[in-house]
Specification:
33% of the residues lie in helices and 37% in strands. By secondary structure, the protein is an alpha+beta fold.
């Protein structure tokens, strides 16, 4: 009997406490912050590819070409922490028509160029030293975290301005932020694929511009719930 009484009292107290909890008046809005900056770095993926009928000879030739490429990269004063081998492979390829097996060797190196004015010179030297495949090129900024922080602040300002607009007609005010949710998507730098053309010159003898840098766009999205104040 006592046990039943205690259970009933607990239930009554719980209901009473729930009734005392007041609903917090909120307004939820989304905000977007956008920052556009000119990149000051570029990441270049280069490869040396070699084909032949003898696996050992193919690997040897590929290693020799890569050695020449790495020596050029060092000569171009690229810091050792700014270039790295990404992939090395040696694979057989069978030709069903000729019923013959050939071999395909490749090695890929990723280079971070921190001086965009040297792009044409570097690309010309890489091709001359033995690079025969250029993959994607990604533009970057050395101040990316700073730009992301600025975009987040702009997103919060945008959300606050929207909340103020909505609340203005109700005679209330936007109070303190009650909940903040970051909806930003991962940032992926611009990519483009380069051709194997050497640096060319126009009719006036000047070097052609071969790199359209453009701008990097960093976007932050946020959802904010504000308490409504009288």
């Amino acid at each position: 009997m006592k046990k039943t009484f205690l259970i009933l009292m607990t239930m009554v107290m719980t209901v009473a406490q729930a009734q005392e909890i007041k609903q917090v008046p909120l307004i939820s809005v989304s905000g977007e912050g956008k920052v556009k900056v000119a990149p000051d770095q570029v990441s270049i993926s280069i490869s040396v590819e070699t084909r032949g009928n003898n696996s050992a000879e193919v690997k040897k030739q590929n290693d020799e070409k890569i050695d020449a490429v790495i020596k050029y990269i060092k000569k171009a004063n690229i810091a050792k922490e700014d270039y790295q081998t990404q992939r090395v492979s040696l694979n057989p390829q069978y030709d069903y028509e000729k019923k013959k097996t050939s071999f395909y060797a490749t090695q890929t190196i990723q280079i971070l160029l921190k001086d965009l004015s040297k792009y044409d010179e570097l690309m010309e030297g890489l091709v001359s030293s033995g690079v025969n495949s250029i993959g994607n090129i990604e533009f970057k900024s050395s101040k990316m975290e700073q730009h992301k922080s600025e975009a987040r602040k702009l997103a919060m300002k945008d959300a606050k301005a929207k909340a103020d607009d909505f609340v203005a007609v109700t005679g209330q005010k936007t109070g303190m932020a009650y909940n903040i949710t970051d909806n930003s998507q991962p940032f992926y730098p611009q990519r483009m694929y380069a051709t194997m053309e050497m640096k060319s010159f126009d009719s006036a003898g000047g070097a052609r511009e071969t790199l359209a840098i453009g701008e990097i766009e960093i976007i932050a999205n946020v959802t904010v719930s504000y308490i409504l104040a009288n």
